[in-house]
Amino acid sequence: MISTGVPRSLQTFNIMISVYGLGGKLDKAAEMFAAAQELGLLIDEKIYTNMLNFYGKAGRHQEASSLFDRMKELGIMPGKISCNSMINAYATARLHDEAEIVFQEMQSHGQVPDSTTYLALIRSYSESRCYSKAEKAIQMMLTSGITPSCPHFSHLIFAFLKADQIDEAQRICSQMQEIGVAVDLACCRAMMRAYLEHGRVDEGISLFETTRGSLKPDSFILSAAFHLYEHSGSEPEAGDVLEAIGLHGASFLRSLKVGSKLEPT
User: Fold this and answer.
1) 116-136: pLDDT as tens digits
2) Domain span holding position 194
3) Where do the PPR repeat units fall (predicted)?
4) Could you tell me if residue 138 is inside a domain?
Protein backbone atom coordinates (compact mmCIF):
# COMPACT_ATOMS: atom_id res chain seq x y z
CA MET A 1 0.00 0.00 0.00
CA ILE A 2 2.75 2.41 0.97
CA SER A 3 4.97 1.65 -2.04
CA THR A 4 2.11 2.06 -4.54
CA GLY A 5 1.38 5.61 -3.50
CA VAL A 6 -1.97 4.96 -1.84
CA PRO A 7 -2.77 7.86 0.54
CA ARG A 8 -1.42 7.10 3.97
CA SER A 9 -4.39 8.30 5.97
CA LEU A 10 -5.51 6.82 9.26
CA GLN A 11 -8.83 5.90 7.67
CA THR A 12 -7.08 3.93 4.92
CA PHE A 13 -5.08 1.95 7.46
CA ASN A 14 -8.20 1.26 9.50
CA ILE A 15 -10.01 -0.02 6.42
CA MET A 16 -7.11 -2.33 5.61
CA ILE A 17 -7.00 -3.56 9.21
CA SER A 18 -10.72 -4.37 8.95
CA VAL A 19 -10.29 -6.14 5.61
CA TYR A 20 -7.44 -8.31 6.91
CA GLY A 21 -9.11 -8.91 10.28
CA LEU A 22 -12.42 -9.96 8.79
CA GLY A 23 -10.56 -12.16 6.34
CA GLY A 24 -8.83 -14.01 9.16
CA LYS A 25 -5.42 -12.53 8.31
CA LEU A 26 -4.71 -11.10 11.73
CA ASP A 27 -0.94 -10.95 11.26
CA LYS A 28 -1.47 -8.77 8.18
CA ALA A 29 -3.82 -6.56 10.18
CA ALA A 30 -1.12 -6.24 12.85
CA GLU A 31 1.39 -5.25 10.13
CA MET A 32 -0.96 -2.47 8.99
CA PHE A 33 -1.32 -1.28 12.57
CA ALA A 34 2.47 -1.24 13.04
CA ALA A 35 2.97 0.54 9.70
CA ALA A 36 0.57 3.30 10.73
CA GLN A 37 2.56 3.80 13.93
CA GLU A 38 5.88 3.85 12.07
CA LEU A 39 4.56 6.61 9.81
CA GLY A 40 3.85 8.71 12.88
CA LEU A 41 0.10 8.72 12.42
CA LEU A 42 -1.84 9.50 15.57
CA ILE A 43 -3.56 6.20 16.33
CA ASP A 44 -7.04 6.83 17.69
CA GLU A 45 -9.33 4.70 19.83
CA LYS A 46 -11.24 3.45 16.79
CA ILE A 47 -8.19 1.63 15.40
CA TYR A 48 -7.22 0.29 18.82
CA THR A 49 -10.75 -1.04 19.26
CA ASN A 50 -10.63 -2.65 15.84
CA MET A 51 -7.45 -4.52 16.74
CA LEU A 52 -8.75 -5.45 20.20
CA ASN A 53 -11.84 -6.94 18.62
CA PHE A 54 -9.88 -9.07 16.16
CA TYR A 55 -7.34 -10.22 18.75
CA GLY A 56 -10.16 -11.18 21.11
CA LYS A 57 -12.07 -13.18 18.51
CA ALA A 58 -8.86 -15.00 17.57
CA GLY A 59 -8.25 -15.99 21.19
CA ARG A 60 -5.10 -13.88 21.39
CA HIS A 61 -5.91 -12.23 24.70
CA GLN A 62 -2.28 -11.44 25.55
CA GLU A 63 -1.85 -9.22 22.50
CA ALA A 64 -5.24 -7.65 23.21
CA SER A 65 -4.26 -6.97 26.81
CA SER A 66 -0.93 -5.40 25.79
CA LEU A 67 -2.72 -3.17 23.31
CA PHE A 68 -5.32 -2.20 25.88
CA ASP A 69 -2.60 -1.23 28.38
CA ARG A 70 -0.73 0.73 25.70
CA MET A 71 -3.85 2.77 24.97
CA LYS A 72 -4.04 3.87 28.59
CA GLU A 73 -0.31 4.58 28.77
CA LEU A 74 -0.67 6.91 25.79
CA GLY A 75 -3.53 8.74 27.46
CA ILE A 76 -6.26 7.25 25.29
CA MET A 77 -9.15 6.45 27.60
CA PRO A 78 -10.80 3.21 26.44
CA GLY A 79 -14.44 3.78 25.59
CA LYS A 80 -17.30 1.39 26.16
CA ILE A 81 -16.75 -0.49 22.88
CA SER A 82 -13.04 -0.95 23.63
CA CYS A 83 -13.82 -2.24 27.12
CA ASN A 84 -16.49 -4.59 25.77
CA SER A 85 -13.99 -5.99 23.27
CA MET A 86 -11.43 -6.52 26.05
CA ILE A 87 -13.95 -8.25 28.32
CA ASN A 88 -14.91 -10.50 25.42
CA ALA A 89 -11.26 -11.32 24.79
CA TYR A 90 -10.85 -12.39 28.42
CA ALA A 91 -14.11 -14.34 28.24
CA THR A 92 -12.81 -16.34 25.28
CA ALA A 93 -9.68 -17.13 27.30
CA ARG A 94 -11.76 -17.96 30.41
CA LEU A 95 -10.06 -15.24 32.43
CA HIS A 96 -13.02 -14.01 34.43
CA ASP A 97 -10.94 -12.16 37.04
CA GLU A 98 -9.34 -10.01 34.35
CA ALA A 99 -12.72 -9.43 32.71
CA GLU A 100 -14.12 -8.30 36.05
CA ILE A 101 -11.26 -5.83 36.52
CA VAL A 102 -12.02 -4.19 33.16
CA PHE A 103 -15.71 -4.06 34.09
CA GLN A 104 -14.88 -2.33 37.38
CA GLU A 105 -12.47 0.09 35.67
CA MET A 106 -15.25 1.09 33.28
CA GLN A 107 -17.51 2.01 36.15
CA SER A 108 -14.78 3.85 38.07
CA HIS A 109 -14.27 6.07 35.00
CA GLY A 110 -17.96 6.88 34.80
CA GLN A 111 -18.78 4.50 31.94
CA VAL A 112 -22.20 2.91 32.24
CA PRO A 113 -22.18 -0.78 31.23
CA ASP A 114 -24.69 -1.61 28.51
CA SER A 115 -26.34 -4.86 27.41
CA THR A 116 -23.26 -5.84 25.38
CA THR A 117 -20.98 -5.25 28.38
CA TYR A 118 -23.08 -7.49 30.59
CA LEU A 119 -23.29 -10.16 27.89
CA ALA A 120 -19.48 -10.30 27.72
CA LEU A 121 -19.17 -10.36 31.53
CA ILE A 122 -21.78 -13.11 31.92
CA ARG A 123 -20.03 -15.08 29.21
CA SER A 124 -16.69 -14.77 31.04
CA TYR A 125 -18.22 -16.02 34.30
CA SER A 126 -20.13 -18.83 32.61
CA GLU A 127 -17.10 -20.05 30.66
CA SER A 128 -15.16 -20.17 33.94
CA ARG A 129 -18.00 -21.96 35.77
CA CYS A 130 -18.52 -19.02 38.11
CA TYR A 131 -22.25 -19.63 38.07
CA SER A 132 -23.21 -17.45 41.05
CA LYS A 133 -21.28 -14.48 39.64
CA ALA A 134 -23.03 -14.89 36.29
CA GLU A 135 -26.39 -14.86 38.07
CA LYS A 136 -25.39 -11.76 40.02
CA ALA A 137 -24.45 -10.02 36.76
CA ILE A 138 -27.94 -10.74 35.42
CA GLN A 139 -29.44 -9.29 38.60
CA MET A 140 -27.21 -6.22 38.22
CA MET A 141 -28.65 -5.72 34.74
CA LEU A 142 -32.19 -5.86 36.04
CA THR A 143 -31.37 -3.49 38.90
CA SER A 144 -29.85 -1.07 36.36
CA GLY A 145 -33.04 -1.15 34.31
CA ILE A 146 -31.53 -3.16 31.46
CA THR A 147 -33.72 -6.05 30.30
CA PRO A 148 -31.64 -9.15 29.54
CA SER A 149 -32.18 -11.01 26.28
CA CYS A 150 -32.15 -14.79 25.88
CA PRO A 151 -28.38 -14.90 25.12
CA HIS A 152 -27.64 -13.33 28.51
CA PHE A 153 -29.32 -16.32 30.15
CA SER A 154 -28.19 -18.85 27.55
CA HIS A 155 -24.50 -18.58 28.40
CA LEU A 156 -25.31 -19.65 31.96
CA ILE A 157 -27.81 -22.29 30.84
CA PHE A 158 -25.28 -23.82 28.44
CA ALA A 159 -22.63 -23.84 31.17
CA PHE A 160 -24.96 -25.71 33.54
CA LEU A 161 -25.93 -28.20 30.83
CA LYS A 162 -22.28 -28.79 29.96
CA ALA A 163 -21.76 -29.75 33.61
CA ASP A 164 -24.90 -31.96 33.51
CA GLN A 165 -26.59 -29.67 36.05
CA ILE A 166 -29.96 -29.88 34.33
CA ASP A 167 -32.02 -28.73 37.32
CA GLU A 168 -29.95 -25.54 37.54
CA ALA A 169 -30.28 -24.93 33.80
CA GLN A 170 -34.02 -25.45 34.12
CA ARG A 171 -34.16 -22.99 37.02
CA ILE A 172 -32.44 -20.27 35.00
CA CYS A 173 -34.67 -21.01 32.01
CA SER A 174 -37.74 -20.60 34.23
CA GLN A 175 -36.41 -17.32 35.66
CA MET A 176 -35.89 -16.04 32.14
CA GLN A 177 -39.45 -16.86 31.12
CA GLU A 178 -40.86 -15.36 34.34
CA ILE A 179 -39.54 -11.91 33.40
CA GLY A 180 -40.96 -12.23 29.90
CA VAL A 181 -37.85 -13.27 27.96
CA ALA A 182 -38.72 -15.92 25.38
CA VAL A 183 -36.60 -19.02 24.86
CA ASP A 184 -34.76 -18.82 21.53
CA LEU A 185 -34.06 -21.71 19.16
CA ALA A 186 -30.52 -22.43 20.38
CA CYS A 187 -31.60 -22.49 24.02
CA CYS A 188 -34.61 -24.69 23.27
CA ARG A 189 -32.45 -27.15 21.35
CA ALA A 190 -29.98 -27.39 24.22
CA MET A 191 -32.69 -27.97 26.83
CA MET A 192 -34.51 -30.49 24.63
CA ARG A 193 -31.29 -32.42 24.08
CA ALA A 194 -30.67 -32.57 27.84
CA TYR A 195 -34.21 -33.73 28.57
CA LEU A 196 -34.07 -36.34 25.81
CA GLU A 197 -30.66 -37.77 26.68
CA HIS A 198 -31.42 -37.92 30.41
CA GLY A 199 -34.87 -39.43 29.97
CA ARG A 200 -36.74 -36.45 31.41
CA VAL A 201 -39.75 -37.08 29.23
CA ASP A 202 -42.43 -34.92 30.85
CA GLU A 203 -40.15 -31.88 31.04
CA GLY A 204 -39.14 -32.26 27.41
CA ILE A 205 -42.74 -32.54 26.28
CA SER A 206 -43.70 -29.52 28.39
CA LEU A 207 -40.93 -27.40 26.85
CA PHE A 208 -41.95 -28.45 23.35
CA GLU A 209 -45.60 -27.64 23.92
CA THR A 210 -44.87 -24.21 25.41
CA THR A 211 -42.45 -23.14 22.67
CA ARG A 212 -43.70 -24.78 19.48
CA GLY A 213 -45.88 -21.82 18.57
CA SER A 214 -43.12 -19.23 18.91
CA LEU A 215 -40.13 -20.97 17.31
CA LYS A 216 -39.61 -21.86 13.68
CA PRO A 217 -39.85 -25.61 12.88
CA ASP A 218 -36.56 -27.33 13.68
CA SER A 219 -35.53 -30.86 12.71
CA PHE A 220 -33.90 -31.68 16.05
CA ILE A 221 -36.65 -30.27 18.26
CA LEU A 222 -39.43 -31.92 16.25
CA SER A 223 -37.59 -35.25 16.15
CA ALA A 224 -36.87 -35.12 19.88
CA ALA A 225 -40.53 -34.33 20.57
CA PHE A 226 -41.61 -37.34 18.48
CA HIS A 227 -39.34 -39.68 20.42
CA LEU A 228 -40.49 -38.25 23.76
CA TYR A 229 -44.16 -38.63 22.86
CA GLU A 230 -43.59 -42.14 21.54
CA HIS A 231 -41.67 -43.10 24.70
CA SER A 232 -44.54 -41.84 26.88
CA GLY A 233 -47.10 -43.81 24.88
CA SER A 234 -48.70 -40.70 23.40
CA GLU A 235 -49.09 -42.13 19.91
CA PRO A 236 -51.57 -39.51 18.56
CA GLU A 237 -49.25 -36.65 19.57
CA ALA A 238 -46.25 -38.48 18.12
CA GLY A 239 -48.17 -38.87 14.88
CA ASP A 240 -49.00 -35.17 14.81
CA VAL A 241 -45.32 -34.28 15.21
CA LEU A 242 -44.33 -36.70 12.45
CA GLU A 243 -46.90 -35.05 10.21
CA ALA A 244 -45.49 -31.62 11.08
CA ILE A 245 -41.99 -32.82 10.17
CA GLY A 246 -43.22 -33.75 6.70
CA LEU A 247 -45.31 -30.61 6.33
CA HIS A 248 -42.37 -28.30 7.08
CA GLY A 249 -39.85 -30.29 5.05
CA ALA A 250 -37.77 -30.99 8.14
CA SER A 251 -35.52 -34.01 8.54
CA PHE A 252 -36.58 -36.80 10.87
CA LEU A 253 -33.71 -37.85 13.12
CA ARG A 254 -34.57 -41.49 13.70
CA SER A 255 -31.35 -42.29 15.61
CA LEU A 256 -32.23 -40.10 18.62
CA LYS A 257 -32.85 -42.14 21.75
CA VAL A 258 -34.58 -41.28 25.01
CA GLY A 259 -32.28 -41.74 28.00
CA SER A 260 -29.14 -42.32 25.93
CA LYS A 261 -26.93 -40.85 28.67
CA LEU A 262 -28.48 -43.03 31.35
CA GLU A 263 -27.34 -46.27 29.77
CA PRO A 264 -24.20 -47.93 31.21
CA THR A 265 -21.10 -47.55 29.04
Assistant:
1) 999 999 999 999 999 999 999
2) 164-265
3) 9-43, 44-78, 79-113, 114-148
4) no
